[in-house]
Amino acid sequence: TNLPCPSLEKQYVVARHVYSEDSFAGDHEKIHRVPKTGLDHVRGYLTCDSKRAKAAVLSLLPIVGWMRSYRVREWLLGDVVSGISTGLVAIMQGLAFSLLASLPPSYGLYTAFFPMLTYFFLGTSRHISVGSFPVLSLMVGAVVTRLVPEDGPPANITSFEGLTPDQQRVLVASSVTFLMGIFQLAMGVLQVGFIVVYLSDTLVSGFTTAAAVHILVSQLKFVLGLDVPGINGPLAIIYTLEKIFVQITLTNICDLVMSIVIMVIVFIVKELNDRYKAKLPVPVPIEAIMTIIACGVSYGFNFEKRYDVDIVGKMVSGYESPIAPSVEVFRESAVEAFPVAIVGFAVAFSVAKVYSIKHDYTIDGNQELIAFGVSNIFGASFRSFAASTALSRTAVQESSGGKTQIAGLISAMMAMMVTVALGFLLEPLPTSVLGALVIVNLKGMLMQFREILYLWRRDKPECVVWVGTCLGAILLGLDLGLAVGLGVELLTVVFRTQFPRCSVLANIPGTDLYRDRKDHLHIFEPKGVKIFRIPSPIFFANIEFFREKLVGFNPLRVLRKRNKALRTIKKLFQEKDNHMTELDQPSDLKGLPFRMDWNAELPTNIRVPRVDLHSLILDFSAVSFLDISALKGLRMALKEFIRMDVDVYIVSCDVHILEKLHNCMFFDEEILTSMFFPTLHDAMLHVLGTHKEDKSTSWFMEQLSFKTVVPRRAEQAFVASNFSFFFIVFKLHVHY
């Protein structure tokens, strides 16, 4: 059976006066609030007491908060199991993603260790796995390739003297990461974590999809066993593909077969992990398993010499002493480092936000900036490269039972163990295996191409943002592509606000509700009344659009036509008019022996556009701000309607906008405060009360008894003008 809608069972009845803003203010006294000055805010910010000091400590060291409530018996085992599982993934991804950064694989293990040590104390997320992220690795690798190319001399940087090419690349990567950390730390200290809101989910999706395409192309040379130098800049992906296809006949079959086998197996097991994740205590660490098998097979069959397979080679054992960043690299890479900082934070914050909502705790965007800034500065000092988080690695940490960052600390300890003691076991690992692991982990990002159809069907401007960002990042590079995406996104915002979907409203009979008249069959729309809804802020760029959309005609043109007609009529009754009406001013009907109705049938030689409108109601409920330019345009538009005898009302105006109108001297003898009403229904009731009878009479609504003196010359002009209909409409008494 169909149950009745609950909303139909409940009713409310309100009996009150019809209010305008003036009458409402008279009946209900308003509290006068004095806004705080800038000095008051500074004084409040600098005031310190024990409560604020405690809050500051908890904010800067979130570990103090969650460690005090740590449930050892319930959470410790899950954190340990999660840390081990995540550690295996982090080690493999660190080795693989270091190839994207154009660095020796062992430095990927540094990125899995050092940044996590500081994030453990400073981060507010309890679930993200801090370490390498493929997009950031690729962006850092673009700088490394530009300054230390594989097939040419390095850039002219003093710090490069006496260093091997690998050491030069490590110096560039660590310097870029250090500068990235400085940017993030500065933004966190300045409390500008809100900047991430300008990177919409659509933009980030298109950007990461383009990054996945770049990553895929960059790994083809490892999978195919080709010697392709790194290329960066606009159209780099096209040039890279060209070089790959030129050498395609030189493909190393052993590398290709091994990569395909590993990708197929890893893909299948990952799909099984997702399908049976509810039954599995921890996901199967297939990357680690395949890496161990590949190392054993490569070592046993001597792939390096027998099949000319490139292997990882000598691993750095232990940790090297800290290094200082290169200021010269700072100057060369500042433009690239800033988008790396923004993207790294945006990805980490969005992933952290997902899990904070799922597990019901809060994260602080500004503190996350500080945490990642310090982590990247600290890690860069020990030769690690850009750190953020990876969704796949974080999913492993959370799904395998991780409750806090103790799991992240354990995963970092595992990376340390491999670096210090077990690194030599990875030396026979073919680089094609790492390339295959990178490619198979791109599935999630590449599947985002499906969003194009979804967005096209539901929100075409968002689809344009996605496609524009993706194409820009693919063809121009990730740094320029991000700028293109931001530009397209801002253009869509401008487009939506400059050309919003305006609507004409009508009353739903029997209610105080008003909806778009195109959407409902049964509506009440009084004759001569138009309700126009403005669904966006009004500012300099869209005020003319609204003026054109208001009623479908130009009120100034109508007013000028009326005044020209009025001049013609006045010449019939008086020799000279010493007070001729300006065309843009209100029509002066004084001295006429009749009442004018501009909608009646006029003489053939007088043409005035017909206007079937006596009241215009503007719904300001969605108008959030009004700038000075729009204020002037609105004032001009209202005056034009008022001067052509159309009553204008503004309803549901925000109190701050109303205050701004008062402060900017918006009101005068024509535009009155009585035009403003608190609700749309109040204004409609006022209009219906004012126009109780809608009389549509002839050109003269009412014939008056009058006596006037008309000179013979005027009478002759009257007859000559062929106003024959005058004798039908009224009787003119002329006294000589």
TrEMBL record:
Organism of origin is: Scophthalmus maximus (Turbot)
- List the subcellular locations: Membrane
- Protein's name according to its UniProt entry: STAS domain-containing protein
The Gene Ontology terms for molecular function here are:
secondary active sulfate transmembrane transporter activity
The gene from which this protein is expressed is LOC118301249
Entries under Gene3D superfamilies matching the protein? STAS domain (3.30.750.24)
Lipid bilayer topology = Multi-pass membrane protein
What Pfam family is a match, any one? Sulfate_transp
Keywords for this protein: Membrane, Transmembrane, Transmembrane helix
Query: From which domain of life does this come?
Result: Eukaryota
